[in-house]
Automatic annotation (TrEMBL):
NCBIfam families: Sig70_bacteroi1, sigma70-ECF
Family: Belongs to the sigma-70 factor family. ECF subfamily.
UniProt cross-references to InterPro entries, sorted A to Z: RNA_pol_sigma-70-like, RNA_pol_sigma-70_dom, RNA_pol_sigma70_bacteroid, RNA_pol_sigma70_r2, RNA_pol_sigma70_r4_t2, RNA_pol_sigma_r2, RNA_pol_sigma_r3/r4-like, WH-like_DNA-bd_sf
Protein name: RNA polymerase sigma factor
Domain RNA polymerase sigma-70 region intervals: 21-88
UniProt source species: Algibacter miyuki
Keywords: Sigma factor, Transcription, Transcription regulation
Domain spans labelled RNA polymerase sigma factor 70 region 4 type: 120-169
Taxonomic superkingdom: Bacteria
A Pfam family of this chain: Sigma70_r2
Length: 189
C-alpha cells in the first residue's frame, strides 16, 4: 500500500493504513523532533501524540496528497506546545519561589505552617468537584477549557466552581494575605 492509498484508507478509518503510515514515519519523526528536544523519550511522546492527532483529524487529509508534511507540522506544533507549557511552569515556579523566599523572611515558620494547614483544611471542606477543579487549575496548571473538557462540563461550570473555592478560601483567611497562602500551599503540593 503506497502513501496515497494509505491516506485514502485512513480517511475511512482503516487501522491497517494507520499502522502503515505509523511504521513509515515514526522513526523519521522521532529523529526530526529529537533535533529540537535533544531527548529521545520526550521526542517519542511528542510523535506519539502527533499520530493520535492524525488519527483524530483523519477526515481533514487530502486524498491526492501525502500526509508527510501534515504529520511533520503536527509533530512540530506539539513540540512548540510542550516548550510553552514548560516555560509557563518554570516561570510560575520562579515567581512562586522568589515570593516565598521574600515572605519567609517576614513570617515565622511556625505561623506559616499553621496557615498552610488551615488552607489544606479549607480545601478539604470544599465539595469534591470544586476541590478537584481547584487542584486541576492551581496544582496541575490546566486552563479552564482543558478542565471543562476533562470533566465533561462547560467552562462556565469550571468558572463557577473556582469562584466558590476562592470565596471559601477568602472567607477562611479574611484577615490574612491570600496570595502568600496560595504560594505556600502550591509549594507543599
Amino acid at each position: 500500500m503506497n502513501e496515497l492509498e494509505a491516506t485514502i484508507a485512513l480517511k475511512n478509518g482503516d487501522e491497517d493504513a494507520f499502522r502503515n503510515l505509523f511504521d513509515l514515519y515514526y522513526d523519521r519523526l522521532v529523529a526530526y523532533i529529537a533535533t529540537y528536544t535533544h531527548d529521545k523519550m520526550s521526542s517519542e511522546d511528542i510523535v506519539q501524540q502527533a499520530f493520535i492527532d492524525l488519527w483524530n483529524a483523519k477526515e481533514k487529509l487530502q486524498d491526492c496528497k501525502s500526509p508527510k508534511s501534515y504529520l511533520y507540522t503536527i509533530a512540530y506544533n506539539r513540540f512548540i506546545d510542550s516548550i510553552n507549557t514548560d516555560k509557563r511552569r518554570n516561570n510560575l515556579l520562579d515567581v512562586v519561589y522568589e515570593n516565598a523566599l521574600r515572605d519567609r523572611i517576614d513570617d515565622d515558620i511556625e505561623i506559616l505552617e499553621k496557615r498552610v494547614e488551615k488552607m489544606n483544611q479549607i480545601i478539604q471542606t470544599l465539595p469534591p468537584k470544586c476541590r478537584k477543579t481547584l487542584e486541576m487549575n492551581k496544582i496541575n496548571g490546566l486552563k479552564y477549557h482543558e478542565i471543562a473538557e476533562i470533566m465533561g462540563v462547560s467552562v462556565k461550570t469550571v468558572e463557577s466552581q473556582m469562584s466558590v473555592a476562592f470565596k471559601k478560601i477568602r472567607k477562611g483567611f479574611e484577615k490574612e494575605n491570600l496570595y502568600l497562602l496560595l504560594v505556600n500551599f502550591l509549594k507543599k503540593h
